[in-house]
Amino acid sequence: MEGDTTVDDALGTSTGGAVPSRGQKMDEGLRWFSDFFFRPFTWFFGKLGISPNIITLLGIALAFASAYFLTVKNVPLAAVFWVLSGIFDIIDGYVAKKLEKTTAFGSFLDSFSDRISDAAIYLGLAIYFLRSSEGVYVGLSLAILVMTFLVSYVRAKAESLDVHCKAGLMARAPRIILLAIGLFFNGLSPWVLKIVVWIMAVLLFETVFERLIEVWKALAE
C-alpha cells in the first residue's frame, strides 16, 4: 500500500522488468541519498532498542504538531515538525527492515499513520488559509487531501488485483519534500506556499489520472 514507507518502497523499487514510469525514475534518483542518509539511524535506534512501531507513532505526533502550528499560523515551526515527521515516517520502515523487526501489524500501522498524518497536515493547511481568508486555497488544500487518499487507494486496489501501480510524480516522499519546501520558504513570500499548493494539486491530479490509466491498460490486456 502507498503508506508502507520503507526506503525501497517510498524512494524507489525495482520494476520487475517493466518500463519504469517518470515517478519511478525520480524516486530511483533518491535511493542512493536515502541509503547514505538513513544508515546511521539504523545504528542509533538499534542501540536504543526503540521499536519501529514507536517510531511510527512519534511520526504521527510530529505531523499533528506541524498541523497545529499551521492552524495558529506559525509556519516556521510547522515546517520543522513536518520535516521531522517525514523523516520518522521513512525511518520506521528502514529500521524495521535492517533490524529484522518487520511485522504485518507494523506494515498496517505504517499505512494507517500515513493517512492520519496526511489528514492532519492538509486540514491544518486548510485552516491556515481559512484564517487568512484565502478561500481558493482552502478548497485546494481539501482537494489535495482527497487526491492524496485517492492516490493511495488506487494503488492499494490495483495491487489487490495483482496490478503494479506506481505511476505519477506525487508519491508520498515527493509530497513530503514539496510541502516542506513550501513551508520553509513561505517566510520569503506568502506566494511560495501558494505556488507549492497549486503544483501539488496539479501533480496529484496527474498522478491519480496516470495510475487509473496504468490500471486500465493492465486489466484490459
Structure explained in plain terms:
The chain has 221 residues and is mainly α. It has one domain (7-12, 20-220): Four Helix Bundle (Hemerythrin (Met), subunit A). Helices cover 78% and strands 0% of the residues. Helix 4 (75-98) runs antiparallel to helix 7. It starts with 6 loop residues before the first helix and ends with a helix.
Features:
single chain, 221 residues, mainly alpha, Four Helix Bundle (Hemerythrin (Met), subunit A), 8 helices, 78% helix, disordered N terminus
Sequence-ordered SSE layout with sheet pairings:
Elements: H1 7-10, H2 22-48, H3 52-71, H4 75-98, H5 104-131, H6 135-160, H7 172-184, H8 190-220
Helix pairs in contact: 2-4, 3-4, 3-5, 4-5, 4-7, 5-6, 6-8, 7-8
Number of DSSP helical runs: 8
Q: Please identify which CATH superfamily we are dealing with.
A: CDP-alcohol phosphotransferase transmembrane (TM) domain
SS content category: mainly alpha
The number of E-state strands comes to: 0
- Indicate the CATH topology: Four Helix Bundle (Hemerythrin (Met), subunit A)
Number of domain modules: 1
Spatial extent as radius of gyration: 17 Å
Quaternary structure annotation: single chain
Strand count, sense and closure of the main sheet?
A: none
CATH class: Mainly Alpha
Shape descriptor reads globular
CATH architecture: Up-down Bundle
User: Which residue ranges are poorly predicted, with pLDDT under 50 across at least 5 consecutive positions?
Assistant: 1-17
Secondary-structure element order, N to C: HHHHHHHH
Instruction: Calculate the mean pLDDT score and round it.
Output: 84
